[in-house]
Write a structure and sequence with these properties.
single chain; 115 residues; mainly alpha; 434 Repressor (Amino-terminal Domain); 2 domains; 8 helices; 70% helix
């Protein structure tokens, strides 16, 4: 029970003023499920912990254990997590803004040169 209490304390420390209901809606999980797990001090199943971690810009390891071996600052972790769930058009836009070459495009160009 203490582990779950610490889990929810870490969760609360990362909410940045957002409501639990807002976070639940953002990850596509019923608010009532999250509310019951919080009030009964239960850690959600792994798939929900992963979604919560992504939404809060942290790692599952941090939420569950309090340890964070991730070398990225939290603001960069939040960006990475958003990109992981972004659609292809948004990812391509970010690549253009940051002037990142798409290796898949380069491979296609190399194939055309060979043919």
């Amino acid at each position: 029970m203490e582990d779950a209490r610490l889990f929810w304390n870490r969760f609360d420390s990362l909410r940045n003023g957002r409501t639990v209901k807002d976070i639940a809606n953002s990850i596509g999980v019923e608010y009532e499920l999250i509310r019951v797990q919080r009030t009964r001090y239960r850690i959600p199943k792994a798939s929900i912990v992963v979604l919560l971690a992504r939404e809060l810009g942290t790692t599952t390891e941090f939420l569950v254990t309090g340890e964070n071996n991730d070398q990225l600052p939290s603001y960069l972790r939040a960006i990475v997590n958003r990109l992981l769930i972004a659609d292809e058009v948004d990812v391509q836009m970010v690549q253009r803004i940051l002037k990142i070459e798409n290796n898949d495009d380069n491979k296609q160009q190399e194939k055309r040169k060979i043919q």
